Amino acid sequence: MRDEPYRWIEAIQDRRDYIEDQLRPGSPVVGIAYSEGMILLTIGKGQRKIFEVHDRIALSAIGHPADIERLRMLVTDTASVQGFQNATEDVNLHRLTNYVLAHTFKQAFESIVGEAYIIKMLLAELGSTPEKNLFTGINFDGIVQTDTNFAVIGGTEMIETGMQNYLANAPADVDRDLTAALRLGLETWAVGKELSTRESEATDLEETQIDTTQMYEIVDAAREDGEIEAGVLATTQQGSSKFRLLTAQEVEAALQ
Amino acid sequence: MSLKGHFLNQSDPRYQDIALQTVVDHKGDFLNLLKQANYPLRVELPSENAQHATDIEIAHSTTVVAVLYRDGVMIAGDRRATAGTAVIYDRAEKVLQIDRHAVLAISGSPAIAYEIARMLEHSFQYFRRSQLQELSLEGKLRMLSRLIRENLSMALQGIGGVIPIFALYDLNAKADANGGKVFFYDALGAHFENVDFATTGSGSIWIRGVLRYLSRFGDTPLHGMDQRQAAITILRLLDIASEYDAATSGYNAKVNIFPNVKIVTRSGVDTISDDDLTTWYAEAQPEQT
């Protein structure tokens, strides 16, 4: 098939459409930097979606659970060996995403006779200073995007753009505390959720049309059969491992 | 396909095959992961040099002591490192935090002991990260057994033996119960739980009887002591050990070097500060009248 470029490109496009269809209903994930570190959050239905990879690296993903688990183990194993072989400070996200993950994603996506990964991944690395915090998103085709302040993954590009716009328009507050970051994250999640329920014909409208009250109604509705999952990489965390999942009490307290 | 000797060469296409394609389920076992990556877990001596020591003296050149007190475990070690009769270092850390509720106190060959502590720390972390739950208390004990057993050939050659004390807090203990646990290990990796105290190293023989006496006949039994009482007791014990054992240092007043003292309680591992140790050391050494 590689001898026939047109058919190969067509096959790749078919594959892209198929994967995007599979990812569309995925619950978005939001990553935001706050005064003491970084938070990743989503609302899920039982399957855990936010994971610790290494001392200062966390991971979240949407997609097929089998693919998420396989690629999570790949990056966790690689980071663990590197961290032991050298020092934990020597593990860096750039290498894990650009060398290990992006290559794997791209290879699977373009090997049209093999299985593709149905996945979008968002990783966070807590820097030694806030300026060095790094969010990295990886698409199923291996495209990598980075940001220091916030990042999102959602089922479609339209959903992601809408969520990013909401975050970009939020008051720029570099010193926001964990509660403020959690609330902003939930609002952004609600924006993504609302965009995902629109008919596909309306995709040119990427600005959200709902107000804050409606956002929290969407969050409350989602919590009826799901729960808020949030993990932080916090500089205040004692010991070398900076990751922890927020407790249900912490989440409740932030919503009061 | 052999990757021997290529572990560090990550640009090697064969390494890339492993790194990028193969995800093996290690079931949370960090040692297996390292073996797959060809990390040398053992130091093998050339066969002509590999003779077993005729007189195996494993626990040496230190004093570490752990006491079960009211809130959990207090564990301490002196700071001296020796080579023969020479003092080569007076700030050695022999009480090492492994995770939020576990501490390892080491005696024996420092190179191997530090490697075992590091391996243990990474193993627990790897298990948590890959299996999404903490390694159980029994799992932690077995992992240390395995590392000590892996090191058996070094121990038998008399150059790399390690006898640690492992202190943990069992978070499954009832809220009103003391979940502190202290274990000591033999050279083959068998572990034994101590119910009131444990001590190892060359200075331990001088204080073991004192500990037994305090535990059995003391005004306040060890398990009834609060943090201050336990700290004063431990500082006194290390002082006694340093009186009789040249390889154990006491408190060095000239440069303010105190023993390492850590506590393992329900809220985690904490290090007793030098300020507290200064106060308590003064109380531990009353003026003779």
What does this structure look like?
The complex is a heterodimer of chains A (256) and B (289). The N and C termini of chain A lie far apart (58 Å). Chain A contains 7 helices and 10 strands. Chain A has helices spanning 5-23, 65-85, 93-110, 157-169, 178-196, 212-224, 248-255, and strands spanning 29-34, 37-44, 50-54, 57-63, 119-125, 134-138, 144-147, 150-153, 227-234, 243-245. Chain A is of the alpha+beta class and 256 residues long. Chain A has one domain (5-12, 28-255): Glutamine Phosphoribosylpyrophosphate, subunit 1, domain 1 (4-Layer Sandwich), CATH 3.60.20.10. Chain A is globular. A 5-stranded antiparallel beta sheet of chain A has the order 8-1-2-9-10. A 5-stranded antiparallel beta sheet of chain A has the order 3-4-5-6-7. In chain A, helix 2 packs antiparallel against helix 3 (93-110) and helix 4 (157-169) packs antiparallel against helix 5 (178-196). Chain B is an alpha+beta fold and 289 residues long. Chain B contains 8 helices and 12 strands. Chain B has helices at residues 13-21, 30-36, 110-131, 137-150, 152-156, 204-217, 227-244, 274-284, and strands spanning 64-69, 72-77, 81-83, 86-89, 95-99, 102-105, 165-169, 180-185, 191-194, 197-200, 260-265, 268-271. Chain B has a 5-stranded antiparallel beta sheet with strand order 10-1-2-11-12, covered by helices on one side. Chain B has a 5-stranded antiparallel beta sheet with strand order 5-6-7-8-9. In chain B, helix 3 (110-131) packs across helix 4. The longest helix of chain B is centred in the middle third of the chain and has 22 residues, at 110-131. The A-B interface holds A 48, 51-55, 70, 73-74, 76-78, 80-81, 83-85, 100, 103-104, 107, 238-239, 241 and B 7-8, 19-21, 23, 25-26, 30, 33-34, 37, 39, 97, 99-100, 118-119, 122, 125-126, 128-130, 132, 268.
